[in-house]
Design a protein that fits this description.
Elements lengths: L2 H4 L2 E4 L14 E4 L2 E7 L18 H18 L7 E8 L5 H11 L8 E6 L9 E8 L2
Parallel strand pairs: 4-5
Antiparallel strand pairs: 1-2, 2-3, 3-6, 4-6
Helix pairs in contact: 2-3
C-alpha cells in the first residue's frame, strides 16, 4: 500500500444497510482509523422497503444495533477487539441498567473492553430506543 493509498478516505456501507438518506456514510475508514456512524436497531435492509426496527424491546434493538455496528466494522476490516470507544445513546433514563446488562453480556469475552459513554437524548425517530457509534483503530 502506498502512502497515498493509506491516507485515502473510504466510505463503508455493508450489504445489510440501506444507502444513507442524506450525505453521510455509515462508516468511514482512513488509514488505520475507522469511525462507525450512529447505528440503530434496524433489521437488515430489504430492497424497496423502508427500514424496520428489530422489535419494540430494548434488548432486541440493542442486539440488532450491535450487529449493525459489527457489519460496518467487518466491512472496514475491523473487529470488536479494534474498537477503542463506544458511545451509547438512550431515549429513556430507565433503560440504563438493562442496557448495561445487555452490554456486559455481549462483550463478556473481550479481553479489553472499549472505553464507553452512555447518555440520554430524544433525537431518535419514534419507536427507536438506542443508537450506538464506535471508533476503531486497526493494526
Amino acid at each position: 500500500m502506498t502512502d497515498q493509498t493509506a491516507a485515502a478516505k473510504t466510505a463503508l456501507t455493508p450489504p445489510t444497510h440501506t444507502t444513507p438518506p442524506a450525505k453521510f456514510s455509515h462508516g468511514v475508514r482512513k488509514g488505520n482509523l475507522l469511525q462507525v456512524a450512529g447505528q440503530v436497531g434496524f433489521l437488515p435492509a430489504v430492497e424497496g422497503q423502508a427500514p424496520t426496527p428489530a422489535g419494540p424491546t430494548l434488548r432486541e434493538q440493542t442486539l440488532q444495533t450491535f450487529a449493525n455496528v459489527e457489519a460496518i466494522l467487518h466491512e472496514g476490516g475491523a473487529t470488536w477487539d479494534d474498537v477503542m470507544m463506544i458511545r451509547v445513546y438512550l431515549t429513556d433514563t430507565g433503560h440504563f441498567a438493562e442496557m448495561n446488562e445487555i452490554y456486559n453480556d455481549y462483550f463478556k469475552d473481550l479481553a479489553v473492553a472499549p472505553a464507553a459513554r452512555t447518555t440520554v437524548y430524544v433525537g431518535l425517530p419514534a419507536g427507536l430506543l438506542i443508537e450506538i457509534d464506535a471508533l476503531a483503530v486497526l493494526g
